[in-house]
Amino acid sequence: MQATRDFSHYVRHLGSGLSHIDLAVEGVNCAGCMSKIERGLSALPDVTLARVNLTDRRVALEWKEGTLDPARFIDRLAELGYKAYPFEPVRAEAIETEQASFLLRCLGVAAFAAMNIMMLSIPVWSGNVSDMIPEQRDFFHWLSALIALPAAAYSGQPFFRSAWTALRARRTNMDVPISIGIVMALGMSVMETLHHAEHAYFDAALMLLAFLLAGRYLDQSMRRKTRAVAGNLAALKAETATKFIGTDEISVVPIAAVQAGDIVLLRPGERSAVDGNVIEGQSKIDQSLITGETLPVKAGPGTAVYAGTLNLSGALRVRVSAASEGTLLAEISRLLDNAVQARSRYVQLADRASRLYSPVVHTAALLTMLGWAAYGATWHDAIVIAISVLIITCPCALGLAIPAVQTVVSGAMFRTGVLLNSGDAIERLADVERVVFDKTGTLTLPELDVTNAVDVPRDVFELAGRLALASHHPVAAAVARASGARTPLAGAEEVAGQGVRGFVRGLEVRLGRPSFCGADQLANEILHRDPEASVVAFRHGETRHVFAVRQRLRPDAASAIATLVKAGIEVEILSGDREPAVRHAAEQLGIHEWRAGVTPADKIVRIEELKRRGVKVLMVGDGMNDAPALAAAHVSMSPVSATHLSQATADLVFLGDHLAPVVAAIGFSRKALLLMRQNLWLAAGYNSLAVPLAIAGLATPLVAAAAMSGSSVLVILNALRAHSGARELC
Amino acid sequence: MEVLVFLVPLALTLGALGLAGFLWSLKNGQYDDLEGAGWRAIADDEPASERAPSAGSGRH
To answer: Which NCBIfam families match (chain B) (predicted)?
Structure first.
């Protein structure tokens, strides 16, 4: 049965007789790749657009409708040496892209207005001490108002909206004092202009907006970049299913195009991408991603399989079911929902600062007004001075203090292979006291590995690897991977449930069960030494060898754990796997606290118990059974090989085979928190200098402009220090 | 000071033109791929013979 590939799900019809598809491409990182791909694809007839986006690592393609099969592009890219897969923009990403371009538009408008008003303000400032006549000054003020009012109304929207939402929910955030400050500054300036007064603060209000918008935009664009990379990784995992479109006709379709009731084929060695029940076939399945249990289970008609289940031996026909009540998956989703709801709303550092900040500043302004009135000033003067206090304390530096650090740190994390899923993860990660690891796929590599490669002669190993390429079985795949073999042995055939065999120069070669190769005794010796290993035997004529295959720890797991322990962070293993396997891993890594055979519900219980003791827990896990625990923990992390559910739940995702990114992420976030605090203190220091000036009535527009830009630049420079020296845990 | 009659509108018009240009480039998708745009500037133009080797290598 040769399957056709059907990517029509991803194709968008543009209406003018053109079709459009977005492909995520792996390995595009230079100008050479860009032109190679664009030329290679444009050379296909009827392609009207082929454009690489180097930032997002994607290709946009358009062609005349009905002339080309999208699979053709993927094949062409494979010929050029790039792995590609259709990409479906997720809603969250589309919304963020929309927000980013709105922020950039606001920033453009605010910057334009700020510069033009500054151009008008400088003559006023210099004119005030020389020979400017009041009519000219008024004229310049009116011109400033003409630019400032519409510009502020447009570019202030992000702040006004957020402040309004917060106030309606009877909360306060940093945007509330910002909005009050801007509105007051503009209102007072208009009043002053009407009364032909000397000072107007249009420039300060717009400059404040421009600075704050720049901070927000940078913060957001960094987050968008990580999301794009995460989206590509998800697309490149190529979650497809082989669907029956006739009784014996199959087609490879993306998961999104599979519906409940469809029948899919699950070949040996394939991981199921859907939930359903077996209707035909016998096999062994590995549920380790779902339950954490690494021992295979028998499957036959009626057995339930879940997304993430690995089919080991025989082909299965599976009827897709909607996630129904009473299944393990439904149970996990229920636990997950509860955990997400129960997750105590973490109050971000910026919001905590603003809770303290708003009352202090607004009281100070009120007292200033009353004080001046009591001192004998007119109400008009008292109000003007009070508002100038609000303007000068308007949290310019405070608004930048945290986004600036976040941008720099998430950029640095990105380069070490850590992607941020949630915005406040950095702050939460910084005060982690205990790391709870899942074992399978987290401390160990997601794929199996040959452990006794050194015992087998090089040439035998390579021959076995070439033979293994003919098999889909994960154990055989591990042998093929470890041997580095690339060319499959010609004429090899699979013997169902036994192994593969072929011929080399007239001699039969076999790879498979020990009994299939007559190597039971050798296999038993290995199993006696290492009962946790899986064995696969190889026979070439009369020479026999047995490979021991097992999950291997991540290469730097021991050193990463040691670093954590040295930094005073406690480490614990919480695994659904059997006791001997967990004990073995714990002993190798020197971890004293471990629990085996833990169910998803027990994992939450353990996390909750730690939480009650006041311990801040970082949960690192990859299986579907870890998802509820990931949501319940103070902060969570997943390897990129994790199931979709876990990855979506985790606050951070790390790439690659190493555990080092976990340690690095904690180091970076600690440094970040330190810098955020420093920045807040810098901002507070600035206020303590500037506020007395304002209260004394000395805050002219010139002083306000200088103080604001000075403090903003100081805070940004301090944030840039996050780049260096954050690798070690501090 | 009559010069203000010209200079102020001129300054505002120039500023508005700059803003319009920025908004146009934003709408045009010129900020979608900042990394790639940098490389495109220095990439060689596609030579006319570039497509030939795959199609007509036998002619040489």
So the answer is: ccoS
Closest CA to A198 of A410, A38, A388: A388
* Cβ atoms of A71 and A63 closer than 8 Å: no
Angle between the N-to-C axes of helices A175-194 and A157-168, in degrees from 0 to 180, rounded to the nearest 10: 120
Residue A110 binned pLDDT confidence (cut-offs 50, 70, 90): very high
Q: Give the span between the Cα atoms of A477 and A499, in whole angstroms.
A: 12
Domain tally for chain B? 1
Q: What is the domain extent for residue B32?
A: 9-43
Q: Indicate whether B16 belongs to any domain.
A: yes
> Which CATH number describes the domain made up of A418-445+554-666?
3.40.50.1000
In a domain, B54, yes or no: no
Amino acid letter for position A652: L
Decide if A109 contacts A155 (C-beta within 8 A): yes
- Domain span(s) for CATH 3.30.70.100 in chain A: 1-88
Residue A102 has pLDDT above 60, yes or no: yes
Rounded CA separation A136/A653 (Å): 60
Residue range(s) occupied by CATH 3.40.50.1000 in chain A:
418-445+554-666
Chain B nearest-CA distance from A204, in A, is: 19
For residue A30, the Cα-to-chain-centroid distance in whole angstroms is 23
Q: What is the pLDDT of residues A239-274, one digit of tens each?
A: 677 888 777 777 877 777 777 888 888 877 777 777
Backbone angles phi, psi at A194, to 5 degrees: -60, -35
CATH 3.40.1110.10 residue ranges in chain A? 447-552
Q: Are A522 and A544 in contact (CB under 8 A)?
A: yes
What does the alpha-carbon distance between residue A577 and residue A600 come to, in Å, rounded to a whole number? 12
Radius of gyration of chain A (CA): 32
Burial of residue A521 (CB within 10 Å: 0-12, 13-18, 19+) is exposed
Which chain A residues have any C-beta within 8 angstroms of a chain B C-beta? 30-31, 34-35, 39, 43, 52-56, 101, 104-105, 108-109, 112, 115-116, 119, 136, 139, 143, 147
- Work out the pLDDT band at A328, boundaries 50, 70, 90: low
Which one is catalytic: A175, A275, A438, A651? A438
How many Å apart are CA A524 and CA A3, to the nearest integer? 40
Q: How many CB pairs under 8 A join A and B?
A: 59
Instruction: For residue B43, give how far its alpha carbon lies from the nearest alpha carbon of chain A (Å).
Output: 7
What integer pLDDT is reported at residue A108 of this predicted model? 92
Q: Residue A305 forms beta bridges with which residues?
A: A276
Q: Is residue B56 part of a domain?
A: no
Put simply, the answer to whether A54 touches B46 (Cβ < 8 Å) is no
Looking at the domain assignment, is residue B50 inside a domain? no
Using left for φ > 0, alpha for ψ between -120 and 50, and beta otherwise, residue A309 falls in beta
Give the mutation candidate from A54, A102, A118 for the B interface (greatest B CB count, under 10 A): A54
Smallest Cα–Cα separation from A292: which of A489, A143, A478, A441?
A441
Q: What is the ipTM of this complex?
A: 0.75
Q: Which residue has the higher pLDDT, A296 or A497?
A: A296
> Whats the size of chain A, residue-wise?
730
Let me know: does A297 contact A582? Beta carbons within 8 Å: no
Task: Check residues A562 and A2 and name the one with the higher pLDDT.
Answer: A562
CATH 3.30.300.30 for domain A1-88, yes or no, is no
Is the distance from CB of A10 to CB of A254 less than 8 angstroms? yes
Alpha carbon of A625: minimum distance to chain B alpha carbons (Å): 38
What architecture does CATH give domain A447-552? 3-Layer(aba) Sandwich (3.40)
Range list of β-strands (E), B1-60: none
- For A502-541, the pLDDT digits (tens) are 888 888 888 888 888 888 888 888 888 777 777 888 888 7
Please name the residue that has the structure tokens 């102020």: B8
Residue A155 has pLDDT above 70, yes or no: yes
A46 is catalytic: no
